[in-house]
């Protein structure tokens, strides 16, 4: 296969990797933040506890997005070898 | 930008082992904390000065964080968790100086994640004994054994990769901004990606470590 083509495909795939992986965590984190706001409106006195739980849940939801980012960086590293 | 897409630069070699920029900066961070800890505890007084008061506030903050998250009986972990927080936090915010943050190197973050993984396995073994340890992988059903092993191995990978990906991603974005507008514009990005994300990721890393160890001991 043409090495130039491999590099171009790797760059395109890295864009798709991070772009598609960003959808899920975006929805999940927004949902968690919205629910946290609802909880805060109901019980404002639990503010610090709600915020720390929200951040922890968002961090776990973010994992797949970060996997996409790591994959995209690996693909960019591969592309450098071919271009 | 180019600099951050390459592997970290090798500064020198010790007995053939390459010491990269990130590892060296990580050692400097450790030396800083060892030196600071030594210097502060030499001159302890009944009426603390500002340095001693800050150190005491940090230690009591770590103690209350650990006792809130893990329970009063596991307070002994505050030394480990506190060191982890200090190291990861200073490493993360070093990005504002233009150095490569040590936590943007997968070797360092995965090293810390593997340390947590070892601790989890050790304390589960200690809490459940040989039979209980083997049995804990066959729950809730025996044929889920391979899946439980995979989920056990995925925990440290996600722990290390989360920190690495966040910090390296932030560093690369800031480097890209420097390429487009070198003056003024990178400041808010530094504030967000280095300081805010650095602090949040430190908190999350410590929190997940505590939760994993606590779950293993139950």
Overview of the structural elements:
The complex is a heterodimer of chains A (83) and B (218). Chain A is mainly alpha-helical and 83 residues long. Chain A has one domain: Up-down Bundle (F1FO ATP Synthase). Chain A has helices spanning 3-42, 47-82. Chain A is rod-shaped, with a radius of gyration of 19 Å. Chain A starts with a helix and ends with a helix. The model of chain A has no long low-confidence stretch (mean pLDDT 88). Chain B is mainly alpha-helical and 218 residues long. Chain B contains seven helices and two strands, in the order αββαααααα. A two-stranded antiparallel sheet of chain B has the order 1-2. In chain B, helix 2 (21-42) packs across helix 4, helix 5 (106-136) runs antiparallel to helix 6 and helix 5 runs parallel beside helix 7. The radius of gyration of chain B is 20 Å and the shape is globular. Chain B starts with a helix and ends with a helix. In chain B, 27% of the residues are buried. Chains A and B meet through helix 2 of A and helix 6 and helix 7 of B.
Radius of gyration of chain B: 20 Å
**Backbone structural class of chain B:** mainly alpha
Number of discrete domains of chain A: 1
Low-confidence segments of chain A, given as residue ranges, are none
Instruction: Please give the CATH class of chain A.
Output: Mainly Alpha
Helix coverage percent of chain B: over 70%
The number of domains of chain B is: 1
Query: Class by helix and strand content of chain A?
Result: mainly alpha
> Kindly state the mean pLDDT of chain A as a whole number?
88
Q: Give the low-confidence spans of chain B.
A: none
The overall strand count of chain A is 0
Largest inter-chain contact set:
A-B, 15 and 17 residues
What percentage of the residues of chain B does DSSP assign to strands (E)? under 5%
